[in-house]
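TICKET: design request
STATUS: open
ATTACHED STRUCTURE:
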């Protein structure tokens, strides 16, 4: 295939007449008495899909994680264990409540929190752990929850990119005390910006109802009993979210097909490893990725630059958080440091055609020589 005339981007949503109809209805009628009709439907349908009792639609996953940490009473002097390899939002939310993120290595194969490394980093200050379902691959939740319970720690899942991922027969987001999802415009389902905080606990749900509404007393109009937060989603975004959720199986399947096509096209190359799936896991492959074996950051960046000359965009896998100025390095975390130098996210959006996947694959092959 000849080089396409436009850059093949790493992400892009799938928007149909179904989404347009719901958003048009919400923007036309969703005011006054109808102000939260789509919000209620979206929250109820999302909770049912994940398999939890309560869901709160938010303006971002970052905001949802901030709410979660505040609801659990985590604050100054507390430590929260977070994987090295994640978007900054996971660790940043810990700092919003004055606590300290402690950065832990990730596991081979999933690039998600390594349960053994997590257990080794627990101190008397540790209050919670935040496993991340990185790029849509589920973290080892049964082991992580078992370790957390033994040490009396809360579990907050950062399920930002993992709507529909499963491990041990259960959906990501149904294991922790709380879990947060993202619907930012590059995710598997989108609301522009947006998120969802879910929990099975009626007590936490009651706390979140108040915290999420600026500390307002639900029984006394405009009376605030504490300082809360405001990360609410709008009804218009909820209309888009509900329509996307009603198509979630199609959206997830396409992500899995994209990954399978990359694996079929590139699986014979010994110099790279294509992102896969560990036993007992269903990854949604939000971002298909390759690790260039033995590459340092300079070679990884050169490969990405060469791909760009063929109109193939890509992203570096997240830098280890502790390699960046805001964070402290407490452990070596060799897997996170290796993939943070050598791995790349390939174009994985819903707008990709099979021909484009094949062009990306041919380009990877050519660039690697
Ligand atoms: C692992 C992870 N956590 C958190 C977030 C933050 O989500 P949001 O932008 O909705 O706050 C993202 C977004 O890319 C993410 O990938």
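STATUS: resolved
RESOLUTION: sequence designed for all positions
ATTACHED SEQUENCE:
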């Amino acid at each position: 295939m000849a080089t396409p005339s436009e850059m093949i981007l790493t992400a892009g949503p799938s928007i149909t007449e179904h989404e347009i109809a719901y958003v048009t209805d919400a923007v036309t009628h969703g005011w006054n008495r109808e102000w939260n009709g789509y919000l209620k439907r979206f929250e109820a349908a999302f909770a049912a899909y994940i398999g939890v009792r309560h869901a709160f639609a938010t303006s971002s996953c970052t905001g949802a994680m901030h709410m979660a940490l505040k609801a659990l009473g985590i604050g100054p002097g507390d430590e929260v264990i977070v994987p090295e390899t994640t978007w900054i939002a996971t660790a940043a939310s810990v700092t919003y409540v004055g606590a300290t993120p402690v950065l832990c290595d990730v596991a081979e194969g999933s690039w998600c929190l390594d349960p053994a490394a997590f257990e080794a980093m627990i101190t008397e200050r540790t209050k919670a752990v935040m496993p991340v379902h990185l790029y849509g691959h589920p973290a080892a939740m049964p082991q992580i929850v078992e370790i957390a319970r033994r040490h009396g720690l809360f579990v907050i899942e950062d399920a930002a990119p993992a709507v529909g991922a499963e491990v041990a027969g259960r959906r990501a987001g149904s294991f922790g005390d709380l879990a947060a999802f993202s619907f930012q415009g590059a995710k598997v389902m989108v609301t522009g910006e947006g998120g969802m905080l879910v929990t099975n606990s009626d007590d936490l749900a009651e706390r979140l109802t108040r915290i999420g509404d600026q500390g307002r007393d639900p029984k006394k109009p405009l009376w605030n009993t504490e300082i809360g937060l405001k990360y609410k989603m709008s009804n218009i975004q909820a209309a888009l979210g509900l329509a996307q959720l009603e198509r979630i199986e199609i959206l997830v399947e396409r992500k899995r097909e994209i990954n399978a096509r990359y694996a079929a096209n590139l699986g014979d190359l010994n110099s790279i490893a294509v992102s896969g799936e560990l036993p007992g896991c269903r990854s949604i492959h939000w971002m298909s990725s390759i690790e260039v074996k033995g590459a340092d950051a300079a070679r990884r960046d050169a490969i990405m630059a060469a791909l760009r000359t063929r109109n193939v965009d890509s992203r570096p896998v997240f830098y280890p958080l502790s390699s960046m100025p805001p964070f402290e390095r407490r452990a070596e975390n060799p897997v996170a440091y290796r993939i943070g130098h050598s791995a790349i996210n390939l174009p994985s959006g819903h707008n990709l055609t099979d021909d484009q996947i094949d062009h990306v694959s041919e380009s990877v092959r050519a660039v690697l020589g």
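CLOSING REMARK: The pocket of pyridoxal-5'-phosphate is lined by residues 60-62, 86-87, 89-90, 132, 158, 160-161, 182, 184, 195 (CB under 6 Å). The chain has a mean pLDDT of 97.
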